[in-house]
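Notes from hallway chat w/ T.B., transcribed later so I don't forget. T.B. wanted the structure written out for a chain they're using in a teaching module, and asked if we could keep both sequence and C-alpha cells in one place. Agreed to drop them here.
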Amino acid sequence: MRYLELEGSGIPLLILHGLGCASSFEYPHVVSAPALRGRHAILLDLLGFGFSDRPEDFGYRVEDHARQVHGLIRERNFQQIDIYGHSMGGSIAIEAADLLGDKVQNLVVSEANLDRGGGMFSRAIAAWKEVDYMRTGHSAMLIQAQASGNGAWAAMMRAASARAVHRGAASLVEGGSRDWRSQFLQHPSQKTFIFGKRSLPDPDFEFLSSRGIRVDIVDDAGHSMAIENPGGLAAAIAQATMTA
C-alpha cells in the first residue's frame, strides 16, 4: 500500500477513500484546507486503487482492506489514531477500528455503508459476474460516469483495478460477518457520521442522533463531498476530531 503522509501536529489522521476512488487524488485539497492545515495526516490508497499495488491473490473485500489498515497502524507503532472513511472506506474504517480497539480516539465516517445491500453504484457493479466486469463492465462504468458528468470518479476508476472494484462492490452488497452498524455503535471511540446536505433526508440522520452519535452536515455537497466542498468537509472532520 502507498500513502501520502503530511507531517504535522496532533494525533495522526488516517483517511480512507471510497469505492473506485483514491485518497491521493481526492484528499490533498481537503487536508490542505484551513481547518486541517498543519495536521498530521496519512492519505492511504487501498490495495487495488490509486498508486497502490494490485495483487491478483488479494481478496479486496471490506474485511481484507481492514486487516491491511490494522497492519499498517501496528507497523507504524501509532499509539493513538483518528480514522476518517468515506462510503466503502467508512465500512473499512469501522472494521479496522474494531480490530484496533482503543487505539482509535475518533472514528469519523461520511455516508458509510452501515448495512449490507450496497448503494446504487456498488449494486450495479456487483450485478456483473466478476469475469464479465473485468472484460467489459469496468470500461462501461467509466463511459457511464464520464457521460453523467462524474469526471473525477471516472478518472479515479480509470486508475483502479477492475477486480478490486468488483470485489469491493460485491462485499458491500453481501455485508460482513458482523454488521457494520453494530460495530460502529459499539466502538468505544468518539464517533461522528457526516452527510452531504444534498444526500438528505436520510433515516440514519435521526437514528444515529438518537443513539448518541454526533451527526454533521457538509453544505453544498452530496455524496462526493471531498470534491464538491473540500473546505466544508475539512471543517467537519476537524470538528469531529477535536480532543475533548
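Follow-up for T.B.: Residues 73 and 81 are 8 Å apart (CA to CA). Might be a good example for the class.
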